[in-house]
Structures are given as C-alpha cells and as structure tokens.
Amino acid sequence: MADPATYRPKPGEIPTSPGVYRFRDAHGRVIYVGKAKNLRARLSSYFQDVANLHHRTQTMVTTAASVEWTVVGTEVEALALEYSWIKEFDPRFNVKYRDDKSYPYLAVTMGEEIPRAQVMRGAKRPGTRYFGPYGHAWAIRETLDLLLRVFPIRTCSAGVYKRAHQTGRPCLLGYIDKCSAPCVGRVSPEDHRRLAEDFCDFMAGDTQKFVRRLERKMQEASAAMEYEQAARLRDDIQALQRATEKNAVVLSDATDADVFGLVGDELEAAVQVFHVRGGRIRGQRGWVVEKVEDVTDAELVEHLLQQVYGSAEDVLSGGADPQSRAAARDAVPREVLVPVLPPDTDQVTAWLTGLRGARVDVRVPQRGDKRELAETVRQNAEHALALHRTRRAGDLTTRSQALQEIQEALGLDQAPLRIECYDVSHTQGSYQSASMVVFEDGLPRKSEYRAFTVRGPEGEGARDDTAAMHEVITRRFRRYLQERSRLGEVEVDPGDEAPASGEVAAEVPPEKGRRFAYPPNLVVVDGGPPQVAAAARALEELGITDVALCGLAKRLEEVWLPGEDYPVILQRASEGLYLLQRVRDEAHRFAIAQHRRRRSKGMTASVLDDVPGLGPARKKALLSHFGSLRRLREASVEEIATVRGMGERTAAAVVAALAASAPRGAAPPAETDADRAGMLGA
C-alpha cells in the first residue's frame, strides 16, 4: 500500500482547466480514469486525509503510485476522452457495465454485394445494419421467417450461396419462395439490394408504407380478377401485421426514445434499457455492475450513457462507410429518458446531440405513458438484480474462500488475485506448443491468454517437457522485464522510484503491447517436481524473486513447491483445490487447441509457403490463373509475372522454390486434385 503523499503533485502544477486524469499503480497499469471541470479541485480531493475518504476511494489512492492528467478545451471533450481512456485501459477501479448475457441482433450485411440477413452477436461490424437487441435468438428467427414472405432476401451462409451459384440450383428457401435466389440469377444484385433496403426500412419502423403498398396491389389484382395473386398479397399483409404486432405500441406519439431503469445498493446496481422506435419496443438490454468506485446514481447514469452511445462515437470518428455512419447516428434517439439526470446534463446533451447530428433531449419522465414505461423498465432492473444476487451469492463467497485457502496453503503474503498457469502440448515432440492462461479474482481473463511456440536451442523444439517449461517461463518473464524497462515508467528494480505524476498527452499508445508488463501473484505449472524445478530455475536466472510458484500434478492432485521434498495436500473438497484444478484444466485445454492449430497447418503445408512476399491472396491468384501446381511448374518467369499482383522478383522466387522442391531427373508428375490443394495449403 502506497502513501498518497509520496506521489502527490504540487498544487501549483495542476491546472484549473477541465480535463481527464488517470491513476497508475506501481507497475504502470492504469487503475482509475476520471474527468473534472477543474482538475486542481478534483485531484486535491483525493489527497486529503485518507481516513475521510470513502473506503473504495481509500483502496484506489493507496494502490496507485502516480497520477497523470490531460487538459482539454471543453467539458464535452473531457466526456469523450474519459470514455476513450476507460475503453482503452479497462481500469479496475472504474465502474464497468457488462452485459448480463450476449444479446443477439438481427443483422443485415449491407456491405456485401449480396446482403444477407442473419442472427449476429458480439462486436458490431462495419457495413452491417443492426436491429435489436432481442432477448432470444428464436424471436429473431420467428420474425425473419414471417418477413421473408414479403422481403425474400438472402439468409444462407457464404458456403451455401457459393455452392448454389456453382451448381445453378438454389437452396430450399429459393424453391419455397422465401429467397429471391440471386445465386442463380432470378434477380439482379441491384434488385436484391433494393429488396434488402426495403427490409431494413421496415425493421427501422417504417411499416405502414409497405402495408399500404401491398393493399394497393391487392386491390388492383382483385379488380383485374387475379384472385390468386390477390390472395397471396392478402397473406403478405397479414404476415407484416403479425410481425408488427409482436412489438406492442407503448408510446402513442410514435416517439423514438431509449428508456433507462436503475436499481442498486452500495455494492451493486442493475440497469435495464428499452429501445423504443416509432412508439414500439424494438430491443432490450441489461447490465449488472459492481460499484468498485464511490459513485452516485447520477454518475452511474453518466457512465451508462457513455457505454451505450460510445460505440456510435467510435464509428463516426473512424473511417466507416456512409451506411455505418447513418446507422450510428440512428442509434442515438431523439429522447433519452433516465431515472436521474447526470451531473453534467448540458455536456452529456451536447455530446449526444453531436453524435446524432440533431437535438437530443435527456430528461426524467414525470407523467403519462413515458412515466409508466420508465416504471416498467425499473421493475425489470429490480428483477434482474434479484436474479443476479441469487446466481452470484455463492459464487462470490466461494471465490474469496478459494483464494484465501490458496494463500494459507502456500504461505503467501496476500491472496493471489492474479494467477498464471502454463502447460505444454505436443505429439511425440512435434509441433511443441505452450499456453499461458490468466485468472484474476478467481475468474478467467481470456483477453490476456497467450500461446507460445516452443523453439528449443536449435529451433526444432525442446528436448523434453522440462526444457520446454523452462523456455516458456524464461520468455514470458524476460518480456516482463523488457516491457517495464522499455516503457520508462517503471524501472526494472522494484525498489526504484515510482513513476512520476504530471501532465500527459491525450493520444496514448495502445495498451495491448503492455500485457506482459504486469506480473502475476502466483505462477502455476502443470506438472510435478521436474516442471516446478525448471520454472524455478528460469525465474532465478532472471532475478525474479517476488512471484510465487507451484505445480499441480494430475495423478494425485498434489501441489508442489520449489525445493520441497513433499507436496502440499489440499482437501479434495476444498475450494482452493477446485480453483487450481480449473486453472490447470483451462491451461491444458488452451495448449491442446494451439497444438492442434499448428499441427493442422503443418499437415497442409505448401511448397510456396516460404516464398517471400507470396501470401494467401497471391497463391489463390496463381491457382486461379494456372489451375494446378503442375502447370505452374511448367510456367516461365514471364508467364507468372503476368498474373495480377505478381512482379518479376516474386515470380522468379516462385520458380526457384518450385525448382528446388522438384526431384532431380524425375518426370513431371500427373496432374491430380492434390496439386490444386497443395498450392493453397488446403
């Protein structure tokens, strides 16, 4: 624990301008990001008597080793920069809104030549229109099935589409008139795109236009006594109406609004949002957040709005296509209804208005339908928090108990909040791979997993598992020392002076390259005394003395410590042993996955893999031009250089590689399917 007075900047050094600040720990990791109208006043509040601070703020300032700040021109700029830094650094003491589930969206890939409608989760992709989120994927498929009758756009995968295009026969959906079959030329790509645009307009809330259009066509068909056509149009109208009725009207004035609800206590809070478009609920999302910092409900709302609409700012500030930029602007509605106004309402409103390109109203609903809907959203948040507490009550307790048991069993000074585990995988010494998995606070942190290719002293792999473990531990912690030294923020010697406080630039280098700069509290290796001894020797050679080490042997689940003749035995039913087993099993799974990827790639090697400047795209171009590896062998440098993307130097390298791989004096082999596959390594 650090004394805040040791890194407190002089009051005269801190400007009184608006800006954003960040606290770093002794390892240089950003642990908290905040913004202020007056940087001097805000930062001074952290350096008062520690006993007067909130207990969460006490933990933060005593964990930190330095503070930095950046001056900005306006408070709106501070709001945007704070969001960017929180997203970049992922500080442990900032409130983070994490979805309580991976919500599915109805996505239309307008960036493709033939747009496709599908269920999509995860990060949003450029050139794709999103509708939702929905509570369940089956709700998307049910709605899509109804609408394909009227908007028969493509829903098949790339493989199915390519196969249908090659064979000239559409898939089942094409035969039952739920796809316009652009794969076989029933409609042109332009007509299909217009169909996809109409589908997107309908999903965006412009429903009556299409209903009126179908009604007009139905009446015209009936007047012309084309009764079968009129009946089909009638059924299309009913399908649109059923799809529309699935979202009941909640706001009679056809308002576009996002309605937020918030329920919480001193430790946790649950948030729900209903996305209302055209007066109908088009999507719903929920978050549960741990209050790791001392924040009010108003500050929680401000952070929430940054989280929800910050992705729109990322799209608008980047080089996205016009469709993605329009979708990002549409994601910000005309009204944002919140349970309590954020502290800087004017700045938040100005920020959202800038994102939308039109006026946005942030307010608390007081009466009428909007007030009733806000109460419904609040009740949803209340139920979500109750469900979360039921699910996590035992989990929080068992994780804390597990970490405490490991601390006591291994004689550690503190609980191992960050655990790294290593495992080696190979097949009789070939394709040697190793894994590093990271658990923080007893939970996996998959963004920091790493895979290693074991090289050995000769570049052909290690002689055995202990040598492989020694190499992996050496490489990981040598990188740790190099990263700390390179950053210049923290000296390699832990006893040296902590990083200095002061002003920094707004533009910061990405943190992704700094993952190895943070040491674990405990290193676990998969194995017994030999593997532990190899890892201990690697740490000793590098001078690492502040990282605990143990090994977990599979046979009897014994915990081995360096230099000990007898293992530490944990109770079979202990939470500490369960956590170590889970860490070990995750490292084993990740190592096997990496080994299988390398083995699969090695089994499909091509003679062209080592040609400088020849990547997958150029190899594919060569295959398309010559048709097979045999014909490529027969081609001259000039003929190869005529292929798109190829130059004379690369063509000469290809000829040399093929000549070196051909047996001397052998006749040209007969052309086979394997020749074609060999060029692409498939």
Short overview:
It is built from 21 helices and 20 strands.
Could you give the topology of this structure?
Elements lengths: L18 E7 L4 E7 L2 H8 L8 H9 E8 L3 H15 L8 E2 L5 E4 L8 E4 L8 E3 L5 H11 L10 H10 L4 H4 L13 H15 L4 H16 L3 H19 L11 E8 L3 E10 L2 E11 L6 H21 L4 H9 L4 E3 L7 H12 L4 E3 L4 H43 L7 E10 L2 E11 L2 E2 L5 E4 L11 H23 L14 E2 L18 E5 L2 H14 L5 E5 L6 E2 L14 H29 L12 H11 L2 H6 L2 H5 L6 H14 L11 H8 L2
Parallel strand pairs: 3-17, 8-11, 11-12, 13-18, 18-19
Antiparallel strand pairs: 1-2, 1-3, 4-10, 5-6, 5-7, 8-9, 9-10, 13-14, 14-15, 14-16, 19-20
What labels would you give this structure?
single chain, 682 residues, alpha+beta, GIY-YIG endonuclease, seven-stranded mixed β-sheet, six-stranded mixed β-sheet, 21 helices, 20 strands, globular, disordered C terminus
Q: What can you see in these coordinates?
A:
The protein folds into five domains: 71 residues, GIY-YIG endonuclease; 143 residues, no CATH class; 135 residues, no CATH class; 163 residues, Nucleotidyltransferase, domain 5, CATH 3.30.420.340; 51 residues, 5' to 3' exonuclease, C-terminal subdomain (DNA polymerase, domain 1, Orthogonal Bundle), CATH 1.10.150. It contains 21 helices and 20 strands. The strands form four sheets. Strands 13, 14, 15, 16, 18, 19 and 20 form a seven-stranded mixed β-sheet that branches. Strand 19 and strand 20 form a beta hairpin. Helix 3 crosses helix 10. It is globular and about 95 Å long.
